[in-house]
């Protein structure tokens, strides 16, 4: 991430936007319009509750609080309809459902009283409403004064669903988000710890490559993102407001984790650290340009969501020009990924045990993100969208991380393990003369288990290996009358064979000396002559 992107993020943090659907809202309205939107909330079928406090000058009487729900004949029929005036927007409400709260002392249920002296009298209204419906519904709260001289109001509203810690301040479309985030935080933390353990083993065998470090970075950022989201939703469950900067920071880390993981997949598809030690100059430039465009698009999505999303509509982040741009870039990345994998397999067919499952599983991942966005925009009910999308999105990320953790586990039984060149050998390969595949290409290698022998066990398969930078020539001169032995000046390994049977066969023991008739005992000696000796 460059400095400019960091500066944009810091600017967002300083703005600290309060969520427009945060369920303890307060503010002031002072406008010449006669109908304005205030906030929205998704209530449960039986436990929805609105508690309010309104204040405005008595001279600006009389104003109304309007309660719309998400039926096509209600809110969609009046919002952003310039052809309808204030009276027509009020006409769609059903008086029998108590959808209009008249903020006057004449309307008992509004709880309004006159406060202050005669010069500055204000109407102070304190009361509440309960919401019941056949299903979870979005309710939209508006303020109106048709045919008047504008609107002026101080308001404070508390919108709740029951009394439980897990539901009270949450809109019905957010139920389960905190529990889901906590669950995925625990799982991702375990994935990160397991990746650290695998990295420790890989480092001991000099196989801890850059791409695996990128995977660990993505997993660590995912953990931090979920941690900030859990803290935000925990505070939100307590007071109904939360700290917007924590949520923004969580989104930022989530996006960085996604970008790092995407870059890692493209690099692995191109064979980096698997079949080659470096990416070509042109490839590096293309990657830099692509990731810069992707990052800028993500920043635009953040800005668009914060500044241009209409709080009067239930929108999804990808339901925007920047969101569709991200989906297009995701498809471009997949085409690039396919081409890179095919080229790598063409030059290194022995890498099929890694690239075949790698390509198959991450093809699903590449399509999961845009498919999820399209389903969220057009297939999921708006009163359940946020919680469902949150779970699906985290599940997609967990799938991607677990698959990579499995196919790169440093186990002797893992036939999909991608790395075979040690990190200490990469410098030698980069400095070697360019062959037909370029100086960055790794030597061909068939899969085997010898890279995973325990450190305490001798690895006899490498006992007679000779490194290219440690070749020594030993010259021996053998003088034999009449024969000249040629020297090995080409640094080749010479294998000789000889029949050593005659040398290794134990010579037969000499026969015992002839027994003389006049002596009853004798000593036998070898190496010299055999003598009989009188005892």
From TrEMBL:
Domain GPR180/TMEM145 transmembrane: residue ranges: 184-404
Naturally occurring in which organism (per UniProt): Gouania willdenowi
Protein's cellular compartments: Membrane
PANTHER family cross-referenced by the UniProt entry: INTIMAL THICKNESS RECEPTOR-RELATED, TRANSMEMBRANE PROTEIN 145
Biological process annotations from GO: G protein-coupled receptor signaling pathway; response to pheromone
Domain of life: Eukaryota
Protein name: Intimal thickness related receptor IRP domain-containing protein
Key words of the record: Glycoprotein, Membrane, Signal, Transmembrane, Transmembrane helix
GO cellular component, one term: membrane
Domain GPR180-like N-terminal: from-to ranges: 25-155
Pfam families named among the record's database cross-references: GPR180-TMEM145_TM, TMEM145_N
Transmembrane segments: 182-202, 214-236, 248-267, 287-304, 324-342, 354-376, 388-407
The organism's taxonomic lineage, starting at the top: Eukaryota, Metazoa, Chordata, Craniata, Vertebrata
Signal peptide segment: 1-22
Bilayer topology annotation: Multi-pass membrane protein
């Amino acid at each position: 991430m460059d400095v400019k992107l960091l500066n944009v993020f810091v600017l967002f943090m300083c703005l600290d936007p309060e969520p427009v659907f945060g369920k303890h809202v307060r503010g002031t309205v002072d406008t010449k319009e006669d109908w304005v939107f205030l906030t929205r909330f998704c209530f449960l079928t039986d436990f929805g509750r609105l508690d309010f406090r309104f204040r405005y000058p008595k001279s600006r009487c009389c104003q109304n609080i309007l309660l719309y729900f998400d039926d096509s004949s209600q809110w969609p029929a009046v919002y952003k309809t310039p052809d309808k005036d204030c009276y027509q927007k009020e006409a769609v409400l059903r008086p029998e459902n108590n959808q209009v709260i008249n903020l006057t002392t004449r309307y008992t249920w509004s709880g309004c009283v006159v406060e202050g002296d005669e010069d500055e009298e204000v109407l102070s209204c304190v009361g509440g409403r309960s919401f019941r419906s056949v299903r979870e519904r979005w309710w939209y709260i508006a303020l109106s004064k048709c045919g008047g001289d504008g609107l002026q109001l101080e308001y404070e509203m508390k919108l709740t669903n029951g009394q439980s810690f897990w539901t009270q301040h949450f809109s019905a479309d957010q139920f389960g988000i905190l529990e889901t985030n906590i669950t995925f935080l625990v799982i991702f933390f375990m994935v990160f710890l397991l990746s650290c353990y695998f990295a420790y083993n890989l480092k001991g065998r000099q196989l801890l490559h850059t791409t695996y470090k990128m995977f660990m970075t993505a997993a660590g950022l995912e953990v931090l993102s979920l941690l900030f989201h859990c803290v935000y939703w925990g505070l939100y469950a307590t007071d109904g407001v939360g700290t917007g900067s924590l949520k923004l920071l969580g989104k930022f880390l989530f996006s960085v984790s996604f970008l790092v993981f995407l870059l890692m997949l493209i690099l692995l598809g191109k064979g980096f650290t698997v079949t080659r030690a470096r990416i070509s100059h042109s490839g590096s430039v293309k990657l830099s340009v692509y990731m810069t465009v992707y990052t800028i698009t993500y920043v635009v999505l953040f800005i668009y969501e914060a500044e241009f999303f209409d709080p009067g509509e239930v929108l999804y982040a990808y339901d925007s020009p920047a969101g569709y741009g991200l989906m297009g870039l995701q498809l471009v990345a997949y085409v690039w990924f396919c081409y890179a994998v095919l080229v790598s397999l063409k030059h290194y067919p022995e890498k099929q045990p890694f690239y075949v499952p790698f390509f198959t599983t991450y093809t699903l991942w590449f399509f999961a993100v845009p498919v999820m966005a399209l389903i969220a925009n057009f297939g999921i009910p708006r009163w359940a969208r946020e919680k469902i999308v949150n779970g699906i999105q985290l599940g997609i990320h967990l799938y991607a991380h677990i698959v990579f953790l499995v196919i790169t586990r440093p186990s002797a039984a893992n036939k999909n393990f991608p790395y075979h060149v040690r990190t200490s050998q990469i410098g030698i390969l980069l400095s070697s003369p360019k062959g037909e595949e370029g100086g960055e290409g790794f030597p061909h290698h068939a899969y085997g288990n010898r890279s995973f022998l325990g450190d305490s066990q001798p690895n006899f398969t490498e006992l007679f290996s000779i490194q290219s930078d440690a070749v020594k020539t030993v010259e021996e001169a053998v003088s034999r009358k009449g024969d000249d032995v040629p020297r090995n000046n080409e640094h080749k390994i010479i294998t000789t064979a000889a029949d050593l049977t005659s040398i290794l066969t134990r010579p037969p023991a000499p026969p015992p000396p002839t027994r003389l008739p006049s002596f009853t005992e004798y000593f036998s000696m070898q190496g010299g002559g055999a003598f009989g000796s009188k005892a």
